[in-house]
Amino acid sequence: MAKRSLEQAIGIITESEETRSSIPRVLRYALINTESYPNKGKDLPDDFVKYFIPESEWFEKKKRGKKNDWMQCQKESGQTFIQWQRSGSSLPFGRRTTIYLIPLAFNEDSIPKEILDPIKAFAAVFFQIPVKVMRTKKFNKEVPNRINENSNTYQVDAGKVLEIMKPLVPSDAFCVAGITMCDLYPTESWNFVFGLANLAGNCGIYSLARYLSNFGKTQTTVYEPTSEEGGISTIFKRACKTMCHEIGHMFGLKHCVFYECLMNGSNHLEESDGRPLFLCPVCLRKLQYSCKFDIEERYRQMIPILEDFGFKDDSKWLKTRLARLETLKKD
Ligand SMILES: [Zn+2]
Ligand SMILES: [Zn+2]
Q1: Edge-to-edge order in the sheet of strand 154-157
Q2: Ligand 1 centroid from CA 22, angstroms
Q3: Does the model's ipTM exceed the 0.90 cut?
């Protein structure tokens, strides 16, 4: 069944557009509940069409990628909106509506405030629910660790860190996301992992170690803003992408195979850097269903943060997308 879904998903991406309807096949497959809207999407509410059935130029279909890219190595079938809904993922509800970020330090410095403050601001806009930063949790050597043979870096067992984090989850937390500059591994057989979340979906950890330009020069990664390629902007963008991707998993979102999307899986730094900062219509619909945000307001709030860091292409995309949504309002 999973194989069939994958074939369907890939087929949808490579086939020419369906002619019976103006709704791309990929979205009819991944986004529309045909039980609720049996008329091939022609009976969808106007706002749904406006926000989630964009013209083809706005979102690029998922590329097959190169040999060592995620899609070539991990056979994932993707997750439609209905599959996500039926997965029973927890949503921000009642008292549990706050995302907590917790800086974690092992054998290296904690995440500097100049990175932590802006990524907190970006997370609050991205998810549109409250985001708070907890006090740094410092570990001694109690977490299983190793020196990675390939990178010669100090790594900690991310799964064990998640176990230790469990009792730290505040009563009003939707989730707690640990951020560290320490390199991570998920199991002995894996080389490394950028991030990991627990199955309950309320604890996650992600690492910025491999995003720093001096990674691998010493066993513990050191943040040196003056020697950072692309300066703090590059680190900020990488940190935001990883954080929002990992927290996205906590909302039950699986890797996206439909579009070039923030929720695409990533096997290496070049692939992570190539991921968009934004969600495709399928993933956006899942998150919007979870957090009940105003899509235009959310896009609007992202612009000044991205402009502060000089991301002109991203802010231009947001502005033109907003302008297009504005014209649809008048139609
Ligand atoms: Zn992921
Ligand atoms: Zn997506």
Answers
A1: 145-147, 154-157, 183-185
A2: 31
A3: yes
